[in-house]
User: What shape does this take?
Amino acid sequence: MGGGPGDTDRVRRAFVHEAVVLMAADGDARAPGAAITVALCGHWQHEPPCPLAPHHPSARRHGGEVRLRVLFAAAPAAEAEVRRRIEAALSRGRLDGPDGATTHWALRDARPGLLGEDEADHARRLLST
Assistant: This one.
């Protein structure tokens, strides 16, 4: 079943996953996004394309909170696996960086998000990779 020209289960769509982590003021706000990339791609530095889901994590610090948005492109059948990996990476609460420093955080919340109008162009770029 599936695999034919009308098989929409293999056509990628753009998705968003949002999360909030608690982090010390001196923690690297980019570390949770790097942990997500490791979970999805095997390492934070790799040649494109991303093997499971082309993605882009962004982080904004608000005091002791870091708010993350992960824009990703995946086939609908892979969506749950991508979200599971994102949450597992964030639940680990740490990343050993390339400089030898370890960044710690605590996952407070994670959930699916909605694609913003201002993200449409970025989503199209992810879908084309």
